[in-house]
Write a structure and sequence with these properties.
With 336 residues, this protein is of the alpha+beta class. The protein contains 9 helices and 12 strands. The protein has one domain (7-335): Ribosomal Protein S5, domain 2 (2-Layer Sandwich), CATH 3.30.230.120. Helix 1 (63-79) packs parallel to helix 2 and helix 6 (205-224) runs antiparallel to helix 7 (228-250).
Length: 336
């Protein structure tokens, strides 16, 4: 155990680019592609103390995120039969329920901090299983572990383990991502998300085959060969097909309202690889270099979808735009 030293863990946000197969006709369901973004990010710290507690630097923290961190601490302590307590502090969190993997990244960062604090050998997938993550998608787990572009192979219908990692490929550092989180209500999560997945119609196997074909023979080769235009075109088509799969649950190929309008605005501004991350409301578009990324970000920062409308519900936050490269590393750990 590290004694009085504090362990810090910083983890990137997760973009979810899409799933491969909702039906599971070959024995595996979901599968998926995604990537790591350095901003927004999670930063937590852990230090030993007699009793366990979780604190947040924010004066009005998100209750769901505090609960996720608290549950992660208890699960790790129980699983490894650790004696003693931990004080966990949430210094920075990813906005909750925006489609950026906030809960998974926070749970894994917290679990990693506790495991490191007590010098417990661990793997990313083991931690994910302990804290109850990667039950459908393992993109967030592998983004946490490795960063970069992630392809995972889906879960067996009779297996509780996280889906296997099939490929992890670095994204060219000059490529830029413009991430836009509109002033909109949070995306669905928890029991509502579980019910939505259960009610989704099963796409025909031919559509899953088309998404897999695009991924294997267009998206991945373009990424390896640094062919930005081909990568963006393939990603846009995969997103379009995924949107059709989820339309029955979310009211259209993209979440209606600000999210859908921002997707169209990014297309109109010249972005490629445009889509909605997970259930949204966050959307993204890609640019070939820093200058193009800055111009794209500037074009969307003045849009009305980023302004909190009058009479909006309390859980509607002002919109924000992030612009920069992708993250080629996973979680970062250090001690002070």
């Amino acid at each position: 155990m590290t004694g009085g030293r504090r362990v810090f863990v910083e983890a990137p946000a997760r973009l979810h680019f899409g799933m491969l197969d909702l039906g599971g006709s070959l024995g595996r369901r979901f599968g998926g592609i995604g990537a790591a973004l350095p901003t927004p990010s999670v930063l937590v710290s852990a230090v030993t103390q007699p009793a366990t507690s979780v604190h947040h630097d924010d004066s009005s923290p998100d209750a769901d995120l505090v609960a996720a961190a608290s549950a992660a601490v208890q699960r790790v302590l129980t699983h490894y039969r650790l004696q003693g307590g931990v004080r966990v502090t949430l210094h920075r969190v990813i906005p909750a329920h925006q489609g950026l993997g906030s809960g998974t990244q926070l749970a894994l960062a917290t679990a990693r901090a506790v495991a490191e604090l007590y010098d417990v050998p661990h793997t990313p997938t083991e931690l994910a299983h302990i804290v109850g993550r990667a039950r459908r998608s393992a993109i967030g787990t592998y983004v946490f572990a490795y960063g970069g572009f992630i392809l995972e192979g889906g879960r067996r219908v009779d297996d509780e383990r996280p889906a296997p990692l099939l490929a992890r490929i670095p994204i060219p550092p000059e490529w830029r991502c413009v991430l836009v989180v509109p002033a909109a209500r949070p995306g669905i999560s928890g029991d509502t998300e579980t019910a939505a997945f259960a009610a989704l119609p099963t796409p025909p196997p031919s559509e899953a085959a088309r998404v897999a074909h695009l991924t294997l023979m267009a998206l991945l080769p373009a990424l390896v060969e640094r062919d930005f235009a081909a990568f963006g075109a393939a990603l846009t088509e995969i997103q379009r097909m995924n949107g059709d799969w989820f339309a029955a649950a979310q009211g259209g190929p993209y979440a209606p309202g600000p999210t859908a309008r921002l997707v169209h605005a990014l297309h109109a501004a010249g972005a490629t690889g445009v889509g909605q991350s997970s259930w949204g409301p966050a959307v993204y578009g890609m640019a070939a270099d820093a200058a193009a990324g800055a111009a794209l970000a500037a074009s969307v920062r003045q849009l009305p979808e980023l302004r909190r409308p009058a009479g909006a519900s309390a859980d509607t936050q002002p919109g924000v735009v992030y612009e920069g490269p992708f993250s080629d590393t996973g979680a970062r750990v250090w001690r002070e």
